[in-house]
Automatic annotation (TrEMBL):
It comes from Ornithinicoccus hortensis. GO terms for biological process: phosphorelay signal transduction system; regulation of DNA-templated transcription. InterPro entries: CheY-like_superfamily, NreC/VraR/RcsB-like_REC, Sig_transdc_resp-reg_C-effctor, Sig_transdc_resp-reg_receiver, Tscrpt_reg_LuxR_C, WalR-like. It holds the Pfam family Response_reg. Transmembrane segments: none annotated. PANTHER family: TRANSCRIPTIONAL REGULATORY PROTEIN NARL-RELATED, TWO-COMPONENT RESPONSE REGULATOR. This is LuxR family two component transcriptional regulator. CDD domains: LuxR_C_like, REC_NarL-like. Residues 166-231 form the HTH luxR-type domain.
Length: 235
């Protein structure tokens, strides 16, 4: 993503990945009608997307999960591994889809149900592009709870070692930053965190930025996952 894209000077550049042409056409019709968005490319599977995305350099990729050849999880993993990459918004049919969970862990910035209305779709794209919020945080939280067994927790005999490892991982955080991480893990928005912790919203954003830096996390979604992995949320 370019510096120009990050500052918002120009429409959000979108790339559509879905194996159903009618689905892509429907999304394109809605998205191209927005003054602040433009569809710069599309692909019918992950392999074609991985070839085209470096060329057209979109800001946000709308990524289907279940596709032939290379699925959305594999495509997201390869985009993330390639270095600076567009934000990936996962499209899924079910809100408790293990594939969507895998895509979040692979580097996706959020996910959205395919039957979401136009207003929700547009809001989700803008949120992901801005990097300020997880898409549908309460749904993300429910999905993580559903698949918490997939997170590395260890057997009962390893619980002490796991707890020690989690504590070492979180050692760099201040008490306030831990509180903010817990709140993000619970699915609260910045404004909700500010109200709960009696902070200015700008201060919440500052804490989130510091947490991301200290724990070397990609984005807010991975803050949620980290809160579960370390036992701060979900026990």
């Amino acid at each position: 993503m370019t510096e120009q894209d990050d500052t918002g000077s120009g429409p959000i550049r979108l790339f559509l990945v879905d194996d159903q042409e009618l689905v892509r056409a429907g999304f394109r019709m809605v998205l191209d009608a927005q003054d602040d968005m433009t569809v710069v490319g599309e692909a019918g599977d992950g392999a074609a997307a991985l070839s085209a995305i470096p060329v057209v350099r979109p800001d946000v990729v709308l990524m289907d999960i279940r596709m032939p050849r290379v699925d959305g999880v594999q495509a997201t993993q390869q985009l993330s591994a390639a270095g600076p990459s567009p934000k990936v918004l996962v499209l899924t049919t079910f809100d408790l889809d293990e594939y969507a969970f895998a895509a979040l862990r692979a580097g996706a910035a959020g996910f959205l149900l395919k039957d979401a209305g136009p207003a929700e779709l547009l809001s989700a794209i803008r949120a992901v592009h801005g990097g300020d919020a997880v898409v549908a945080p309460s749904t993300t939280r429910r999905m993580l709870e559903r698949f918490v067994d997939h997170l590395p927790s260890g057997a009962a005999a390893d619980e002490t070692a796991a707890a020690d490892a989690a504590e070492r991982r979180l050692a760099a955080l201040t008490d306030r930053e831990r509180e903010v991480l817990v709140a993000v893990g619970r699915g609260l928005s910045n404004s909700e965190i500010a109200a709960e912790l009696f902070l200015a919203e700008a201060t919440v954003k500052t804490h989130i930025g510091r947490i991301l830096h200290k724990l070397a996390l990609r984005d807010r979604v991975h803050m949620v996952i980290t809160a579960y992995e370390t036992g701060l949320v979900g026990d």
